Amino acid sequence: MIPYDEEYCPACGEPQPQLDGVRRRPVKKTWVAVLLSLVVTGLGHVYLGRWRRGFAILAATIVVGGVASLYLSYDQVMLVGLFFALFSAIDAYNLSRAVE
Q1: What is the pLDDT of residue 86?
Q2: I want to staple 45 with a disulfide (CB 3.0 to 4.6 A). Which of 15, 38, 50, 70 is the partner?
Q3: Structure pTM?
Q4: Dihedral angle at the C-alpha atoms of 91, 57, 34, 7, nearest 10 degrees?
Q5: Residue 71 CA: distances (Å) to CA of 30, 68, 75, 79
Q6: Cα dist from 35 to 7, 52, 64, 99, 100, whole Å
Q7: Do 34 and 54 form a contact (C-beta atoms < 8 A)?
Q8: Which residues are within 8 A (CB) of 16 and not within 5 positions of it... i.e. 6 or more apart?
Q9: Domain boundaries, the chain
Q10: Mean pLDDT throughout 75-79?
């Protein structure tokens, strides 16, 4: 069964007729989700409606970065942050493509 808010059939790609009183989800842009995840880790997930996942990634970044700052140099902590930013952007990209 096709969900009511889907615009196209996931199996064949045919457009679904508009039903009265049923609103469709707005289409989220993949590049916006990736850019937001690069600017603030997890923000792309919030944009895609996966706010729990986004906040979990942000919290993990802050906790791991805080603990890493006790033991590593500034440059190494920045690499840890870059890793989390790239992970967040790639995950947001994959989530966005799965929704389309």
Answers
A1: 95
A2: 50
A3: 0.70
A4: 70
A5: 36, 5, 12, 14
A6: 25, 19, 22, 17, 17
A7: no
A8: 2, 6, 7, 8, 9
A9: 30-99
A10: 95
